[in-house]
Design goal:
The complex is a heterodimer of chains A (93) and B (471). Helix content of chain A is 40%, strand content 10%. Chain A is mainly α and 93 residues long. Chain B has 471 residues and is of the alpha+beta class. Classes of the chains: A mainly alpha (93), B alpha+beta (471). Chains A and B meet through strand 1, helix 3 and strand 3 of A and strand 2, helix 1 and strand 9 of B. The complex binds zinc ion. Zinc ion (ZN) binds next to loops of chain B.
Chain lengths: 93, 471
């Protein structure tokens, strides 16, 4: 069971700001998702190979050959703030 | 047997940049960015733009297998990538592509020179991941207002080599790092001199406490210092009756202390899940072919040097502890007496280079050969040879020029003989003292001969000739 504390923690990990109203709304929703996983867990998987990827493929590679990169101007064009060619972000921690 | 009185247990997580590849791990951006402006080697993949698709670099996988084999690991049958989710500005996507329960290799070891002789350090696993971007803080990390980000490094191929907690002292940790770096350089997949090439996180605990993880160690010396500090800190906490809690600490390189980061994120908070954009790898079948072409590694070369060149194990160990040095020695040893080459390359040149903090590239191989030829032909004295090496390192030039400028050509034995005769005549008191049993009096006579020949006589020859004449 996910309680309010768990929800707040999950919100913090995703850097989402949740209002009291959001919390009321999402707690039961997340619990119903978890319940559904509980249903899936009940399935009998005896003798079934684990599925690691939905595509039936392995070993897709690229050769070690350089391709064109973006220009610095292009690279910075999506950043809200930049300085001396760096992207500028608020201090962390 | 090493007692390990404090019950120190150290495990290291070393992030190795595969910086000899031409391109990053999941995109075609070049790895040659070290002298370029920030954010000038980036693309939608390594900037984490929506809709971009990573594709793995085949050479990066081959390099990872090489390292796994060189560290005596098993190359796994099935390997795949995961997303490790956390928000930090060095990760543009909000997650890092890394490996989790199916690393590419696991279960190996490295042999190091331990506190009590040869010591084996287990390798838990070596897994592949992408490097985050580089963060620059104005001022110190705890005081700056902004974080500046350069994503040129983002997406560089990394190998995280995780050891078992088998090291029992900071010194062993340093030896482990030296050995690991050396092996990586022998494999020719890594240039340890480039900035950010090798970064270390250390786990350390002492008896009666929990372990601390120390982040942000960027050099081998730094690792040793951080661990020394941490042992003292943990011992002090316990001595005062406190509890050493499990936590993450940051190493402040300038102040040589570790600081608590009070990190709120726990392992399960990373919410690892399989990377849907990359299909699994089944590459264990490549291992035999790669193993067959694996270059000679340091331990093997050390044994071969002893056997092939008849040099001591100490010389062989020192010469092979750095790949470039081993190559330098071998090129010289092939042309002259290998034992003599070992003395001059290992004992003399290496010492002079270390003293000046210079790499082996600072000395020309041909010059080393010239110096040894001059010695073999008895043209210069051993002191003269040392003088030439020092002068070449400090001022440049060629051995012949230095010999000429400094007048280092050894004088002939008959000149030494004449000088000895003169010295005996002019220093009768010393002669009398020597004859009276004062061995030391001979030194002043040798000194007089050296003075007369302006230091170009070989001191040993002068001594022999004097002894002969004094009968
Ligand atoms: Zn890129």
């Amino acid at each position: 069971m996910i309680g309010k504390k768990d929800l707040e923690h999950i919100g913090w990990l995703a850097r989402l700001e949740l209002s009291e109203e959001d919390k009321e709304k999402y707690t039961p929703k997340l619990n119903s998702i978890l319940d559904y996983f509980g249903e899936i867990d009940k399935a009998d998987t005896e003798g079934v190979e684990p599925l690691y990827h939905v595509l039936p493929m392995n070993n897709v590679f690229r050769e070690d050959v350089p391709t064109r990169s973006l220009s610095q101007e292009e690279a910075l064009s999506n950043a809200p703030k930049n300085q001396d060619g760096f992207i500028k972000a608020p201090r962390m921690m | 047997m090493y007692e390990n009185p404090d019950g120190v247990m150290i495990g290291l997580e070393v992030h190795v940049q595969l910086n000899k590849l031409r391109t990053k791990v999941f995109c075609g951006c070049t790895t040659d960015y070290h002298n370029d402006p920030p954010n000038s080697h980036v693309c939608p993949v390594c900037l984490g733009l929506p809709g971009s698709l990573p594709v793995i670099n085949k050479k990066a996988v081959e390099a990872a297998i090489k390292v796994g084999l060189a560290l005596n690991c098993t190359i796994e049958e099935h390997t795949q990538f995961y997303r490790k989710n956390y928000y930090y500005p060095d990760l543009p996507k909000g997650f890092q592509i890394t490996q989790y329960d199916f690393p590419i290799s696991s279960g190996g070891y490295i042999t190091i020179e331990g506190e009590d002789g040869e010591h084996r350090v287990g390798i838990t696993r070596a897994h592949m991941e992408e490097d985050p971007g580089r963060l620059v803080h104005e001022g110190t990390i705890d005081k700056s207002k902004y974080t500046l980000i350069d994503y040129n490094r983002s997406g560089m191929a990394l190998l995280e080599v995780v050891s078992d907690p088998d090291m029992r002292s900071p010194k062993e940790a340093r030896r482990y790092l030296d050995k690991l770096r050396n092996i990586l350089e022998y494999l020719d997949i890594f240039d340890g001199d480039l900035e950010g090439a090798l970064r270390v996180d250390a786990n350390i605990s002492i008896m009666g406490g929990q372990r601390a993880e120390i982040k942000n160690i960027s050099s081998h010396k730094g690792a040793e210092r951080a661990l020394l500090f941490e042992i003292v800190r943990q011992k002090n906490v316990l001595r005062r009756g406190g509890v050493v809690v499990q936590e993450t600490r940051h190493f402040d390189e300038a102040r040589e202390i570790t600081l608590s980061m009070r990190s709120k994120e726990e392992a399960h908070d990373y919410r690892y899940f399989p990377e849907p954009d990359l299909v699994p790898l089944k590459i264990s079948g490549w291992a035999p072919a790669i193993k067959a072409i694996l270059p000679e590694l340091p331990d093997a070369r050390r044994l071969r040097f002893v056997e092939q060149y008849g040099i001591t194990d100490d010389h062989a160990k020192a010469l092979t502890s750095e790949r470039k040095f081993a190559i330098f020695y071998e090129d010289v040893a092939k042309k002259v007496d290998p034992k003599m080459a070992a003395v001059w390359v290992c004992d003399v040149l290496k010492g002079e280079l270390n003293y000046r903090d210079l790499p082996v590239e600072a000395f020309n191989k041909e010059h080393m050969l010239s110096v040894i030829y001059l010695l073999m032909n008895k043209k210069i004295t051993e002191d003269g040879a040392v003088d030439i090496i020092r002068t070449l390192l400090d001022k440049g030039g060629t051995p012949d020029e230095v010999v000429k400028e400094k007048g280092l050509l050894k004088v002939e034995d008959d000149i030494v003989s004449t000088a000895a005769e003169e010295a005996i005549k002019e220093n009768l008191q010393a002669v009398a003292d020597y004859r009276a049993g004062k061995e030391k009096a001979l030194n002043s006579l040798v000194g007089a001969v050296m003075k007369k020949t302006k230091g170009r006589a070989d001191a040993r020859t002068a001594r022999e000739i004097l002894l002969d004449k004094l009968g």
